[in-house]
Amino acid sequence: MKLRQSLNIMGALCLTAALGSAPMIASAAEAKTAQAANPQTQTQTISLLDGKQTFKLQGYEKQPVPGGGPGTMYVNKQEKRVLIIGEEEIPVIARGGSDADFLEGGKSIKDKQKQASPSYTVISEKTENANGLPVYHIEATDKMGGNDVQQATLLAVANKKFTVIQVVSNHKDKAGHLKAVNNILGK
């Protein structure tokens, strides 16, 4: 039991580090960058966790995360949507348990997000099966840069790695937000 608690704490710490730059997302969505020849027609295939988590993005421009945060940011200016996708190795100290133990420890990330942003409010949370991969899915609302947003956080673990995917959408575009999340989940 002590090992499981240690792994849960380690998982939460790793995920907290991975999400540390979340408050900067809103301002990054408005960043003025040189656009490639029509990014709305470009499709990118994202493959994570050694191919266990794969999906396609269309119309997103790849950018670095502001402030040098971990992961990669994808911005769809037309849809006013930002995705931050991070994949990291599970620290050696936390590899003694199962993927399920690490994922369970990651569930406390919603508490860390609430500490970082008092307006962060969880709407729902559940573990879903995405093509055989358990994915912990948190839906929440928040304020970023003074704007109301809907935010999904998706956590998955496999092959001694973990992913954190955040989908941040305008709060008025619930259908578009759901479509983006379902695309990642393979629905």
Task: Explain what this protein looks like in three dimensions.
With 187 residues, the protein is α+β, with helices and mostly antiparallel strands. 27% of the residues lie in helices and 40% in strands. The protein contains five helices and nine strands; from the N terminus they run ααβββββααββββα. It has helices at residues 2-18, 25-29, 99-106, 109-116, 174-185; strands spanning 43-48, 53-58, 61-64, 72-76, 81-89, 121-130, 133-144, 147-158, 161-170. The strands form two sheets. It has a seven-stranded antiparallel β-sheet with strand order 3-4-5-9-8-7-6. A two-stranded antiparallel sheet has the order 1-2. A hairpin with a 2-residue loop joins strand 6 and strand 7. Helix 1 (2-18) crosses helix 3 (99-106). The longest helix has 17 residues, at 2-18. It starts with a helix and ends with a helix. Residues 1-37 have low confidence and may be disordered.
Defining traits:
187 residues; 5 helices; globular
Give a short synopsis of this structure.
The chain is an alpha+beta fold and 187 residues long. The protein has helices at residues 2-18, 25-29, 99-106, 109-116, 174-185, and strands at 43-48, 53-58, 61-64, 72-76, 81-89, 121-130, 133-144, 147-158, 161-170.
Compute the CA-based radius of gyration: 16 Å
The low-confidence runs, each spanning 5 or more residues with pLDDT under 50, are 1-37
How much of the sequence lies in strands comes to 35-45%
- Major β-sheet, in short? 7 strands, antiparallel
**Which structural class is indicated by helix and strand composition?**
alpha+beta
DSSP helical segment count? 5
Mean pLDDT figure: 81
Strand sequence of the main sheet, in spatial order? 3-4-5-9-8-7-6
Number of strand elements:
9
Topology order in helix (H) and strand (E) letters = HHEEEEEHHEEEEH
Inertia-based shape: globular
Helix content: 25-40%
Report the end-to-end length measured between terminal Cα atoms: 35 Å
